[in-house]
Amino acid sequence: MKDLEYVVEDSILINRKFHHYFVMRRDQLIREMTEIYAGLIIDFTYEGKQSIRVTMKGEKACVEAAKKHIEQIFEPLGSHVTKQYVIPQKFYTFFMGPMSSKVHQIAKDYKVQLSFPDKEKPTMHIHPVAQEIGKDKGRKNTKELPFSNQRRCKTIFISGQMENCKAAMEALEYLIPVTAEVRVPSHLHPYIIGHKGSGIKKLMSEFDVHTQVSQPGGNSNIISIMGLAAKVEQAKIKLEKQINALQSQIEDRARRNFKLSFILDPKYYCKITGHKGLLIAQICTEHDVTIQFPKKGNHEIQDQIVITGYKENTLAAKDAIMRMLYKIEKTVSKEIPLNHQVRDSIVGFTGKTIQKIMEQFQVDIRLPPKGSWNPNITVIGLPDKVQEAIDHILELEKYYLSTVIKYDSQLDNFKNTCLYKITMESSKCFGKRDVPRNAKATPNSPNDDSEEFPKLKQQTPPKTHPWRP
Protein backbone atom coordinates (compact mmCIF):
# COMPACT_ATOMS: atom_id res chain seq x y z
CA MET A 1 0.00 0.00 0.00
CA LYS A 2 2.88 2.37 0.71
CA ASP A 3 4.26 1.84 -2.83
CA LEU A 4 0.87 2.74 -4.29
CA GLU A 5 0.92 6.04 -2.42
CA TYR A 6 3.92 7.15 -4.45
CA VAL A 7 2.29 6.24 -7.81
CA VAL A 8 0.66 9.29 -9.39
CA GLU A 9 -0.84 10.15 -12.75
CA ASP A 10 -0.50 13.48 -14.54
CA SER A 11 -1.02 14.82 -18.07
CA ILE A 12 0.02 17.66 -20.34
CA LEU A 13 -1.71 19.16 -23.40
CA ILE A 14 0.33 19.55 -26.59
CA ASN A 15 -0.86 21.75 -29.44
CA ARG A 16 -2.20 19.84 -32.42
CA LYS A 17 0.28 21.54 -34.73
CA PHE A 18 3.09 19.54 -33.07
CA HIS A 19 1.33 16.26 -33.76
CA HIS A 20 3.53 15.38 -36.71
CA TYR A 21 6.71 15.86 -34.74
CA PHE A 22 5.32 13.93 -31.76
CA VAL A 23 4.25 10.94 -33.88
CA MET A 24 7.62 10.71 -35.62
CA ARG A 25 9.55 10.94 -32.37
CA ARG A 26 7.05 9.11 -30.10
CA ASP A 27 8.81 5.75 -29.87
CA GLN A 28 12.19 7.34 -29.31
CA LEU A 29 10.74 9.82 -26.84
CA ILE A 30 8.91 7.18 -24.82
CA ARG A 31 11.95 4.82 -24.85
CA GLU A 32 14.42 7.52 -23.62
CA MET A 33 12.03 8.60 -20.85
CA THR A 34 11.24 5.09 -19.66
CA GLU A 35 14.92 4.35 -19.49
CA ILE A 36 15.64 7.51 -17.58
CA TYR A 37 12.53 7.47 -15.41
CA ALA A 38 12.14 3.78 -14.39
CA GLY A 39 8.60 2.37 -14.37
CA LEU A 40 7.09 5.44 -16.05
CA ILE A 41 4.05 4.75 -18.26
CA ILE A 42 3.36 7.27 -21.05
CA ASP A 43 0.21 7.38 -23.16
CA PHE A 44 -1.38 10.01 -25.36
CA THR A 45 -4.89 10.65 -26.64
CA TYR A 46 -6.39 13.09 -29.13
CA GLU A 47 -8.76 15.66 -27.74
CA GLY A 48 -10.59 17.05 -30.69
CA LYS A 49 -8.58 18.69 -33.48
CA GLN A 50 -6.69 21.21 -31.43
CA SER A 51 -4.58 19.29 -28.94
CA ILE A 52 -3.03 16.03 -27.79
CA ARG A 53 -3.12 14.89 -24.14
CA VAL A 54 0.00 13.13 -22.95
CA THR A 55 -0.61 11.08 -19.78
CA MET A 56 2.25 9.97 -17.51
CA LYS A 57 1.88 7.45 -14.68
CA GLY A 58 4.50 6.39 -12.20
CA GLU A 59 6.33 7.57 -9.16
CA LYS A 60 5.63 11.15 -8.29
CA ALA A 61 9.19 12.34 -8.73
CA CYS A 62 9.50 10.60 -12.10
CA VAL A 63 6.18 11.96 -13.35
CA GLU A 64 7.10 15.53 -12.41
CA ALA A 65 10.52 15.25 -14.02
CA ALA A 66 9.11 13.73 -17.24
CA LYS A 67 6.42 16.40 -17.45
CA LYS A 68 9.04 19.12 -17.11
CA HIS A 69 11.21 17.40 -19.71
CA ILE A 70 8.37 17.29 -22.26
CA GLU A 71 7.50 20.93 -21.64
CA GLN A 72 11.12 21.91 -22.28
CA ILE A 73 11.04 19.98 -25.58
CA PHE A 74 7.87 21.56 -26.89
CA GLU A 75 8.32 25.03 -25.42
CA PRO A 76 10.59 26.28 -28.24
CA LEU A 77 8.14 24.89 -30.75
CA GLY A 78 5.46 27.11 -29.32
CA SER A 79 7.21 30.22 -30.73
CA HIS A 80 7.81 28.60 -34.10
CA VAL A 81 6.17 30.72 -36.82
CA THR A 82 5.95 30.92 -40.58
CA LYS A 83 6.05 34.30 -42.31
CA GLN A 84 5.68 35.32 -45.91
CA TYR A 85 7.97 37.66 -47.76
CA VAL A 86 6.80 39.04 -51.10
CA ILE A 87 9.17 40.51 -53.66
CA PRO A 88 8.52 41.90 -57.15
CA GLN A 89 8.97 39.33 -59.87
CA LYS A 90 11.52 41.49 -61.74
CA PHE A 91 13.85 41.40 -58.72
CA TYR A 92 13.57 37.66 -58.12
CA THR A 93 16.68 36.59 -60.05
CA PHE A 94 18.88 39.25 -58.49
CA PHE A 95 17.36 38.57 -55.08
CA MET A 96 18.28 34.88 -55.18
CA GLY A 97 21.85 35.42 -56.34
CA PRO A 98 24.02 32.93 -58.22
CA MET A 99 22.67 29.43 -57.48
CA SER A 100 20.49 30.95 -54.72
CA SER A 101 23.65 31.64 -52.75
CA LYS A 102 22.36 34.80 -51.09
CA VAL A 103 19.22 33.26 -49.54
CA HIS A 104 21.03 30.05 -48.63
CA GLN A 105 23.47 32.11 -46.62
CA ILE A 106 20.64 33.91 -44.80
CA ALA A 107 18.96 30.59 -43.94
CA LYS A 108 22.23 29.31 -42.53
CA ASP A 109 23.09 32.45 -40.60
CA TYR A 110 19.68 32.89 -38.93
CA LYS A 111 18.72 29.19 -38.54
CA VAL A 112 15.45 29.44 -40.39
CA GLN A 113 13.71 27.51 -43.13
CA LEU A 114 13.12 29.22 -46.48
CA SER A 115 10.51 27.74 -48.79
CA PHE A 116 10.24 28.87 -52.41
CA PRO A 117 7.08 28.43 -54.47
CA ASP A 118 8.93 27.06 -57.48
CA LYS A 119 10.90 24.47 -55.51
CA GLU A 120 9.69 21.26 -53.89
CA LYS A 121 12.40 21.05 -51.28
CA PRO A 122 12.87 23.98 -48.92
CA THR A 123 16.22 25.34 -47.85
CA MET A 124 16.84 24.46 -44.18
CA HIS A 125 19.59 25.37 -41.77
CA ILE A 126 17.77 25.15 -38.39
CA HIS A 127 17.62 23.18 -35.19
CA PRO A 128 16.46 19.56 -35.67
CA VAL A 129 13.49 20.06 -33.30
CA ALA A 130 12.14 22.99 -35.27
CA GLN A 131 13.00 21.27 -38.55
CA GLU A 132 10.22 18.68 -38.39
CA ILE A 133 7.62 21.10 -37.11
CA GLY A 134 8.62 23.63 -39.75
CA LYS A 135 8.11 21.13 -42.54
CA ASP A 136 4.63 20.27 -41.30
CA LYS A 137 3.66 23.87 -40.73
CA GLY A 138 5.14 24.96 -44.03
CA ARG A 139 3.11 22.39 -45.93
CA LYS A 140 -0.04 23.24 -44.00
CA ASN A 141 0.24 26.99 -44.61
CA THR A 142 1.10 26.46 -48.24
CA LYS A 143 -2.09 24.51 -48.74
CA GLU A 144 -4.28 26.87 -46.76
CA LEU A 145 -3.09 30.16 -48.29
CA PRO A 146 -4.65 30.67 -51.72
CA PHE A 147 -1.97 32.25 -53.95
CA SER A 148 -2.12 32.64 -57.70
CA ASN A 149 0.81 31.36 -59.75
CA GLN A 150 2.05 34.89 -60.29
CA ARG A 151 1.78 35.62 -56.56
CA ARG A 152 3.71 32.47 -55.64
CA CYS A 153 6.59 33.47 -57.86
CA LYS A 154 6.98 36.53 -55.69
CA THR A 155 6.53 34.86 -52.28
CA ILE A 156 9.05 33.26 -49.94
CA PHE A 157 8.00 31.41 -46.77
CA ILE A 158 10.21 31.85 -43.70
CA SER A 159 9.80 29.36 -40.86
CA GLY A 160 11.57 29.28 -37.52
CA GLN A 161 11.72 30.96 -34.16
CA MET A 162 10.02 34.32 -34.01
CA GLU A 163 13.23 36.24 -33.33
CA ASN A 164 15.13 34.37 -36.04
CA CYS A 165 12.38 34.98 -38.58
CA LYS A 166 12.37 38.70 -37.86
CA ALA A 167 16.15 38.92 -38.26
CA ALA A 168 16.00 36.85 -41.46
CA MET A 169 13.30 39.11 -42.91
CA GLU A 170 15.47 42.16 -42.25
CA ALA A 171 18.35 40.45 -44.02
CA LEU A 172 16.08 39.59 -46.94
CA GLU A 173 14.93 43.19 -47.16
CA TYR A 174 18.54 44.18 -47.55
CA LEU A 175 18.70 41.94 -50.62
CA ILE A 176 15.83 43.75 -52.33
CA PRO A 177 17.58 45.71 -55.07
CA VAL A 178 17.09 49.40 -55.63
CA THR A 179 17.22 51.13 -58.99
CA ALA A 180 18.97 54.39 -59.73
CA GLU A 181 18.91 56.27 -63.00
CA VAL A 182 21.82 58.23 -64.42
CA ARG A 183 21.32 60.68 -67.23
CA VAL A 184 23.95 60.11 -69.91
CA PRO A 185 23.99 62.21 -73.10
CA SER A 186 23.47 59.97 -76.11
CA HIS A 187 26.75 61.04 -77.73
CA LEU A 188 28.61 59.68 -74.69
CA HIS A 189 27.00 56.25 -74.77
CA PRO A 190 29.71 54.68 -76.98
CA TYR A 191 32.40 55.78 -74.51
CA ILE A 192 30.45 54.58 -71.44
CA ILE A 193 29.37 51.24 -72.91
CA GLY A 194 32.74 50.55 -74.51
CA HIS A 195 33.73 48.14 -77.22
CA LYS A 196 31.29 45.22 -77.19
CA GLY A 197 29.99 46.43 -73.83
CA SER A 198 33.36 46.15 -72.08
CA GLY A 199 32.91 49.41 -70.17
CA ILE A 200 29.46 48.64 -68.77
CA LYS A 201 30.47 45.04 -68.00
CA LYS A 202 33.39 46.28 -65.94
CA LEU A 203 31.05 48.52 -63.94
CA MET A 204 28.65 45.62 -63.31
CA SER A 205 31.45 43.29 -62.23
CA GLU A 206 33.11 45.81 -59.93
CA PHE A 207 29.95 46.71 -57.97
CA ASP A 208 27.85 43.55 -58.50
CA VAL A 209 24.98 45.46 -60.12
CA HIS A 210 22.80 45.14 -63.19
CA THR A 211 22.56 47.92 -65.75
CA GLN A 212 20.09 48.65 -68.49
CA VAL A 213 20.39 51.16 -71.28
CA SER A 214 17.19 52.66 -72.61
CA GLN A 215 16.11 51.08 -75.87
CA PRO A 216 16.09 53.13 -79.07
CA GLY A 217 12.88 55.12 -79.40
CA GLY A 218 12.62 55.78 -75.68
CA ASN A 219 14.58 58.13 -73.46
CA SER A 220 18.00 57.18 -74.67
CA ASN A 221 19.70 59.45 -72.14
CA ILE A 222 18.98 57.15 -69.19
CA ILE A 223 21.08 54.26 -67.86
CA SER A 224 19.44 52.29 -65.04
CA ILE A 225 21.54 50.68 -62.30
CA MET A 226 19.97 47.94 -60.15
CA GLY A 227 21.51 46.27 -57.13
CA LEU A 228 22.06 46.61 -53.41
CA ALA A 229 21.58 50.15 -52.19
CA ALA A 230 25.19 50.73 -51.16
CA LYS A 231 26.59 49.17 -54.32
CA VAL A 232 24.18 51.10 -56.54
CA GLU A 233 25.25 54.37 -54.93
CA GLN A 234 28.94 53.57 -55.48
CA ALA A 235 28.33 52.57 -59.11
CA LYS A 236 26.29 55.72 -59.68
CA ILE A 237 29.06 57.94 -58.31
CA LYS A 238 31.67 56.30 -60.52
CA LEU A 239 29.46 56.53 -63.62
CA GLU A 240 28.80 60.21 -62.97
CA LYS A 241 32.55 60.82 -62.61
CA GLN A 242 33.14 59.11 -65.95
CA ILE A 243 30.49 61.29 -67.57
CA ASN A 244 32.00 64.48 -66.11
CA ALA A 245 35.48 63.45 -67.24
CA LEU A 246 34.26 62.75 -70.78
CA GLN A 247 32.40 66.05 -70.89
CA SER A 248 35.55 67.87 -69.75
CA GLN A 249 37.62 66.15 -72.40
CA ILE A 250 35.15 67.06 -75.13
CA GLU A 251 34.98 70.67 -73.95
CA ASP A 252 38.76 70.83 -73.71
CA ARG A 253 39.06 69.39 -77.22
CA ALA A 254 36.70 72.09 -78.48
CA ARG A 255 38.77 74.79 -76.78
CA ARG A 256 41.96 73.35 -78.25
CA ASN A 257 40.44 73.50 -81.72
CA PHE A 258 39.96 77.27 -81.71
CA LYS A 259 41.10 78.63 -85.07
CA LEU A 260 42.59 82.06 -85.65
CA SER A 261 43.18 83.15 -89.24
CA PHE A 262 44.90 86.28 -90.57
CA ILE A 263 46.22 87.59 -93.86
CA LEU A 264 49.96 87.65 -94.61
CA ASP A 265 51.77 88.40 -97.84
CA PRO A 266 53.23 85.11 -99.19
CA LYS A 267 56.59 86.80 -99.79
CA TYR A 268 57.21 86.60 -96.04
CA TYR A 269 56.47 82.87 -95.72
CA CYS A 270 60.01 81.65 -96.25
CA LYS A 271 61.36 84.29 -93.88
CA ILE A 272 59.11 83.45 -90.94
CA THR A 273 59.48 79.70 -91.40
CA GLY A 274 63.26 79.88 -91.31
CA HIS A 275 65.75 77.30 -92.45
CA LYS A 276 63.97 73.95 -92.69
CA GLY A 277 61.02 75.45 -90.82
CA LEU A 278 62.94 75.82 -87.55
CA LEU A 279 61.60 79.29 -86.68
CA ILE A 280 57.91 78.45 -87.14
CA ALA A 281 58.43 75.12 -85.38
CA GLN A 282 59.85 76.97 -82.38
CA ILE A 283 56.75 79.19 -82.22
CA CYS A 284 54.45 76.14 -82.40
CA THR A 285 56.31 74.40 -79.58
CA GLU A 286 56.52 77.47 -77.37
CA HIS A 287 52.79 78.29 -77.62
CA ASP A 288 51.40 74.75 -78.09
CA VAL A 289 49.66 75.51 -81.38
CA THR A 290 49.66 74.32 -84.97
CA ILE A 291 50.20 76.77 -87.83
CA GLN A 292 48.88 75.97 -91.29
CA PHE A 293 49.98 77.72 -94.46
CA PRO A 294 47.92 77.72 -97.66
CA LYS A 295 48.44 74.80 -99.98
CA LYS A 296 50.28 75.57 -103.16
CA GLY A 297 47.53 74.15 -105.33
CA ASN A 298 44.86 76.44 -103.88
CA HIS A 299 44.80 79.47 -106.14
CA GLU A 300 41.93 81.19 -104.36
CA ILE A 301 43.50 81.50 -100.90
CA GLN A 302 47.25 82.08 -100.90
CA ASP A 303 47.67 84.71 -98.19
CA GLN A 304 45.72 83.22 -95.24
CA ILE A 305 47.46 81.58 -92.26
CA VAL A 306 45.44 79.53 -89.76
CA ILE A 307 46.61 79.01 -86.16
CA THR A 308 44.85 76.24 -84.18
CA GLY A 309 44.97 75.80 -80.39
CA TYR A 310 43.66 77.44 -77.24
CA LYS A 311 42.40 80.93 -77.98
CA GLU A 312 44.95 82.67 -75.77
CA ASN A 313 47.75 80.56 -77.25
CA THR A 314 46.75 81.38 -80.84
CA LEU A 315 46.79 85.10 -80.06
CA ALA A 316 50.24 84.81 -78.48
CA ALA A 317 51.55 82.85 -81.49
CA LYS A 318 50.21 85.50 -83.87
CA ASP A 319 51.96 88.24 -81.84
CA ALA A 320 55.21 86.26 -82.06
CA ILE A 321 54.87 86.05 -85.85
CA MET A 322 54.15 89.76 -86.14
CA ARG A 323 57.16 90.62 -84.01
CA MET A 324 59.25 88.42 -86.26
CA LEU A 325 57.90 90.25 -89.32
CA TYR A 326 58.76 93.58 -87.74
CA LYS A 327 62.34 92.42 -87.27
CA ILE A 328 62.44 91.13 -90.82
CA GLU A 329 61.26 94.45 -92.26
CA LYS A 330 63.77 96.40 -90.17
CA THR A 331 66.62 93.97 -90.78
CA VAL A 332 69.71 95.23 -92.65
CA SER A 333 72.65 93.35 -94.11
CA LYS A 334 76.20 94.68 -94.21
CA GLU A 335 79.45 93.20 -95.49
CA ILE A 336 82.86 93.97 -94.05
CA PRO A 337 86.28 92.71 -95.18
CA LEU A 338 88.18 90.60 -92.71
CA ASN A 339 91.95 90.14 -92.79
CA HIS A 340 92.77 86.55 -93.60
CA GLN A 341 95.60 86.56 -91.04
CA VAL A 342 93.26 87.00 -88.08
CA ARG A 343 90.10 85.46 -89.53
CA ASP A 344 90.58 82.13 -87.74
CA SER A 345 91.16 83.88 -84.44
CA ILE A 346 87.91 85.85 -84.74
CA VAL A 347 85.86 82.84 -85.81
CA GLY A 348 87.32 80.69 -83.04
CA PHE A 349 87.67 76.95 -82.74
CA THR A 350 84.57 75.31 -84.37
CA GLY A 351 83.02 78.78 -84.61
CA LYS A 352 82.50 79.26 -80.87
CA THR A 353 83.78 82.87 -80.81
CA ILE A 354 81.61 84.04 -83.70
CA GLN A 355 78.63 82.26 -82.13
CA LYS A 356 79.09 84.22 -78.90
CA ILE A 357 79.20 87.43 -80.90
CA MET A 358 75.89 86.56 -82.58
CA GLU A 359 74.24 85.82 -79.25
CA GLN A 360 75.65 88.93 -77.60
CA PHE A 361 74.48 91.36 -80.30
CA GLN A 362 71.45 89.36 -81.55
CA VAL A 363 72.63 89.26 -85.13
CA ASP A 364 73.32 86.66 -87.77
CA ILE A 365 76.87 86.44 -89.18
CA ARG A 366 77.53 84.56 -92.36
CA LEU A 367 81.01 83.55 -93.47
CA PRO A 368 82.13 82.84 -97.03
CA PRO A 369 82.44 79.14 -97.83
CA LYS A 370 85.75 77.39 -97.25
CA GLY A 371 88.18 77.74 -100.10
CA SER A 372 86.59 80.99 -101.26
CA TRP A 373 88.84 84.01 -101.92
CA ASN A 374 86.11 86.36 -100.76
CA PRO A 375 87.45 88.12 -97.62
CA ASN A 376 84.08 89.60 -96.64
CA ILE A 377 81.71 88.49 -93.90
CA THR A 378 78.00 89.44 -93.75
CA VAL A 379 76.29 90.74 -90.61
CA ILE A 380 72.46 90.65 -90.60
CA GLY A 381 70.08 92.12 -88.01
CA LEU A 382 68.53 95.33 -86.74
CA PRO A 383 70.58 98.40 -87.75
CA ASP A 384 71.86 99.34 -84.31
CA LYS A 385 72.69 95.73 -83.44
CA VAL A 386 74.49 95.21 -86.74
CA GLN A 387 76.62 98.31 -86.22
CA GLU A 388 77.54 97.27 -82.67
CA ALA A 389 78.54 93.82 -83.87
CA ILE A 390 80.66 95.25 -86.70
CA ASP A 391 82.45 97.63 -84.33
CA HIS A 392 83.21 94.76 -82.01
CA ILE A 393 84.56 92.58 -84.84
CA LEU A 394 86.77 95.41 -86.14
CA GLU A 395 88.18 95.95 -82.65
CA LEU A 396 89.02 92.25 -82.46
CA GLU A 397 90.66 92.44 -85.89
CA LYS A 398 92.74 95.44 -84.86
CA TYR A 399 93.85 93.72 -81.68
CA TYR A 400 94.85 90.48 -83.38
CA LEU A 401 96.66 92.35 -86.21
CA SER A 402 98.70 94.36 -83.73
CA THR A 403 99.71 91.15 -82.04
CA VAL A 404 100.74 89.59 -85.36
CA ILE A 405 102.76 92.66 -86.46
CA LYS A 406 104.60 92.82 -83.16
CA TYR A 407 105.40 89.14 -83.31
CA ASP A 408 106.61 89.38 -86.92
CA SER A 409 108.93 92.29 -86.02
CA GLN A 410 110.47 90.34 -83.19
CA LEU A 411 110.89 87.35 -85.47
CA ASP A 412 112.61 89.41 -88.18
CA ASN A 413 115.07 90.89 -85.67
CA PHE A 414 115.85 87.46 -84.41
CA LYS A 415 116.47 86.16 -87.91
CA ASN A 416 118.75 89.08 -88.83
CA THR A 417 120.82 88.61 -85.70
CA CYS A 418 121.29 84.92 -86.37
CA LEU A 419 122.21 85.53 -90.02
CA TYR A 420 124.83 88.15 -89.10
CA LYS A 421 126.54 85.82 -86.69
CA ILE A 422 126.62 83.01 -89.22
CA THR A 423 128.16 85.34 -91.86
CA MET A 424 130.90 86.60 -89.59
CA GLU A 425 131.94 83.18 -88.45
CA SER A 426 131.98 81.85 -91.97
CA SER A 427 134.25 84.68 -93.18
CA LYS A 428 136.75 83.91 -90.45
CA CYS A 429 136.90 80.31 -91.42
CA PHE A 430 137.43 81.00 -95.11
CA GLY A 431 140.21 83.56 -94.32
CA LYS A 432 142.31 80.94 -92.55
CA ARG A 433 141.86 78.50 -95.41
CA ASP A 434 143.62 80.96 -97.85
CA VAL A 435 146.87 81.05 -95.83
CA PRO A 436 149.74 79.17 -97.64
CA ARG A 437 150.87 75.99 -96.04
CA ASN A 438 154.53 76.96 -95.98
CA ALA A 439 153.75 80.13 -94.08
CA LYS A 440 155.42 80.45 -90.80
CA ALA A 441 153.36 79.48 -87.97
CA THR A 442 152.79 81.78 -85.14
CA PRO A 443 154.19 80.81 -81.79
CA ASN A 444 150.79 80.21 -80.45
CA SER A 445 149.62 78.15 -83.44
CA PRO A 446 150.11 74.45 -83.46
CA ASN A 447 151.78 72.85 -86.45
CA ASP A 448 149.22 70.12 -86.69
CA ASP A 449 147.22 70.51 -89.94
CA SER A 450 144.10 69.08 -88.30
CA GLU A 451 143.87 72.13 -86.04
CA GLU A 452 144.55 74.90 -88.59
CA PHE A 453 140.78 75.32 -89.25
CA PRO A 454 138.14 75.96 -86.64
CA LYS A 455 135.33 73.44 -86.03
CA LEU A 456 132.28 74.98 -87.71
CA LYS A 457 129.79 72.67 -85.95
CA GLN A 458 130.41 74.47 -82.70
CA GLN A 459 129.23 77.76 -84.28
CA THR A 460 125.94 76.47 -85.75
CA PRO A 461 123.19 79.04 -85.08
CA PRO A 462 120.22 77.98 -82.86
CA LYS A 463 117.17 76.37 -84.51
CA THR A 464 114.21 78.64 -85.27
CA HIS A 465 110.63 77.65 -84.59
CA PRO A 466 107.74 78.20 -87.01
CA TRP A 467 105.54 81.23 -86.28
CA ARG A 468 102.31 80.71 -84.49
CA PRO A 469 99.75 83.42 -83.79
From TrEMBL:
What keywords are assigned to this protein? Coiled coil, Repeat, RNA-binding
Q: Which residue ranges traverse the bilayer?
A: none
- Note whether Ubl conjugation occurs among the keywords: no
For this protein, what is any one GO molecular function term? mRNA binding
Query: Where's the K Homology domain?
Result: 6-75, 79-177, 178-244, 256-326, 330-398
Entry's SUPFAM superfamilies?
A: Eukaryotic type KH-domain (KH-domain type I)
Give start-end ranges for the coiled-coil region(s): 229-256
SMART domains per the UniProt record, alphabetical: KH
Give the start-end ranges of region Disordered. 432-469
Looking at the keywords, is Ligase present? Answer: no
Record's Gene Ontology CC terms? cytoplasm
Q: Which InterPro entries match?
A: KH_dom, KH_dom_type_1, KH_dom_type_1_sf
Q: Which PANTHER family match?
A: SCP160 (PTHR10627), VIGILIN (PTHR10627:SF34)
What name has this protein been given in UniProt? Vigilin
Species of origin reads Peromyscus maniculatus bairdii (Prairie deer mouse)
